[in-house]
Specification:
With 251 residues, this protein is of the alpha+beta class. It contains 7 helices and 9 strands, in the order βββααααββαββββαα. The chain has helices at 33-40, 61-69, 74-81, 85-107, 122-132, 185-191, 238-243; strands at residues 5-9, 15-19, 26-30, 110-113, 116-117, 141-146, 152-160, 163-172, 179-182.
């Protein structure tokens, strides 16, 4: 810190004139209330100096709402701009309501299929798809934001087991609730009526090789008893035929 030597007041009496180690180095110090307080010894409660500098990252209300409408959260905008969280929330609240309303309207829109809009709404289609795959359709989280081209992107979040899943749709307002178009694969699977595979891949079940018990040997064929056999007719001897003797010993 350099030491200055007091020379005196300027002609108007508003500044103190000081000089440095060299007489050619002169400085002036404003003779304001703060300097008078220091010289008088009354410095118990210093007054916070007013900052006239412009904070370059301070966003205007319009800029705050534009970022929120584009999908940023209140926390993200506050962190990026260095602004107070309460200030961001005050201007973001109406836009968050707008986003929530857009997401609600999108659930009543009809998914676009290869042959045109579906009869069921997006919410009905999603509910059916999740139930078919054994998932809980009650804990769904919807969000929406407006893109630079003015169109709405709708996001669906759901949980399957321990995995968090996202699907995105393009929402176009219109008659009969408007339409939604799948943006990513997850969205396509949810609205595809012919898609049979589960949304969450299932590991194949390992094949367990068990030792097959030996098959019992076939039982040997059992010969029917003689009593059950059918009696055959008696054949007469040759000499009986020649002598005209009948079977049974009668002539």
């Amino acid at each position: 810190m350099r030491e200055l030597k007091l020379v005196g007041l300027d002609a108007d009496g508003k500044y103190l004139i000081c000089e440095g180690a060299k007489p050619a180095e002169t400085f002036k110090l404003a003779a304001d209330d703060r300097l008078r307080a220091v010289l008088s010894g009354n410095t118990a409660h210093p007054v916070q100096p007013h900052l006239d500098m412009e904070i370059t990252n301070m966003l205007s209300p319009k800029e705050i709402q534009a970022r929120i409408r584009a999908g940023a959260s209140v926390e993200q905008v506050a962190t990026a701009s260095g602004s107070d969280l309460a200030r961001i929330q005050r201007f973001a609240h109406p836009v968050l309501l707008e986003r929530s309303r857009a997401a609600e309207l999108a659930t009543a829109a009809h998914p676009m299929l290869s042959d045109g809009p579906a009869v069921l709404t997006l919410l009905e289609t999603i509910t059916t798809a999740l139930l078919t795959r054994g998932l809980n359709p009650e804990k769904l989280s919807w969000d929406a934001w407006r893109n630079e081209d003015g169109r709405w992107t709708v996001q669906l979040a759901w949980q399957a087991g321990r995995s968090d899943n996202l699907a995105h749709f393009r929402y176009t307002p219109g008659a009969h609730g408007g339409t939604v178009t799948a943006i990513d694969d997850a969205a396509s699977e949810l609205i595809d009526p012919d898609f049979k595979s589960p949304l969450r891949p299932v590991a194949p079940v390992a094949h367990l090789a068990f030792d097959e018990p030996p098959r019992p040997a076939p039982a040997p064929p059992v010969e029917a008893p003689a009593s059950s056999r059918r009696a055959k007719p008696a054949i007469p001897a040759w000499e009986d035929v020649l002598l005209g003797v009948r079977s049974g010993g009668q002539r």
